[in-house]
Each structure stands twice: as structure tokens, then as C-alpha cells.
Amino acid sequence: MNKLLQVDFHYQGPFGEEMTQMLDGLAQSINHEPGMIWKFWTENQEEQRGGGIYLFEDEACARSYLAMHSARLTEMGIRDIRGIILDINQPLSKINKAPL
């Protein structure tokens, strides 16, 4: 069963186009993570938050990615990492045009 992974953390930037340019290689590499279907990159410059919402094939892939990604972020000096794995109510999500 597909699982959503929501990750966010305190992030001081860069944001917008500068973030896009800086993290393009990382974005490309995420496409090769086991079980990853898609990712929405999230950012909030005003609140100094970054993160993403991912769809994984199953819970094992989501948990594995969360562990690896949390370690990578910690190595980059990022703290206050929140990661939540969630089930999807597919019938209701389809009503609201979720990309499932």
C-alpha cells in the first residue's frame, strides 16, 4: 500500500530559484530512491521552513528513506527534523483530484 511521507525542518535558505539551482542534483538523485513515486518540494521563507511531501510504494521504503534523509540533513547541520508516515484515504483523495 502506498504511503505518504511528510518531512519538514528549520531551514534558512536559499529559497525559490536559488534553491532550485543549488539542489537540482539532489532532486535528480531522489528519483532513484527505492520505492519513491513522486515528491513535492515545500518551502516557506517567512517561517524559515523547508521540506517535502513524498509518495512511496510502501511503508518500508518510506521508513528507509526517512532514516537516510534525516541522517543526511543532520550532517548538513539541519536540526528540528519532523518526519511523519501517513496512510492515504484513496477514495476521498480521488474526489479532490490527488495525483495517485
Q: Supply the helix-strand structural class.
A: alpha+beta
The CATH topology turns out to be: Alpha-Beta Plaits
Radius of gyration equals: 14 Å
The biggest beta sheet is recorded as:
4 strands, antiparallel
* Name given to the CATH architecture: 2-Layer Sandwich
Number of strands: 4
Give the total of domains. 1
Secondary structure tally, helices = 3
* Highest-level CATH class: Alpha Beta
Extract low-pLDDT stretches.
none
Strand content: 25-35%
N- and C-termini, Cα separation: 12 Å
The largest sheet has its strands arranged as 2-3-1-4
InterPro entries: Dimeric_a/b-barrel, YdhR
Protein name: Monooxygenase
GO molecular function, one term: monooxygenase activity
Keywords: Monooxygenase, Oxidoreductase
Q: If you had to describe this structure to a student in words, what would you say it looks like?
A:
The protein has 100 residues and is of the alpha+beta class. It has one domain: Alpha-Beta Plaits (2-Layer Sandwich), CATH 3.30.70. A four-stranded antiparallel beta sheet has the order 2-3-1-4, with helices on one face. GO terms for molecular function: monooxygenase activity. This is Monooxygenase. InterPro entries: Dimeric_a/b-barrel, YdhR.
Topology of this protein?
Layout: E1 3-10, H1 16-30, E2 36-44, E3 49-56, H2 59-75, E4 82-86, H3 90-95
Antiparallel strand pairs: 1-3, 1-4, 2-3
Protein name: Monooxygenase
Keywords: Monooxygenase, Oxidoreductase
InterPro entries: Dimeric_a/b-barrel, YdhR
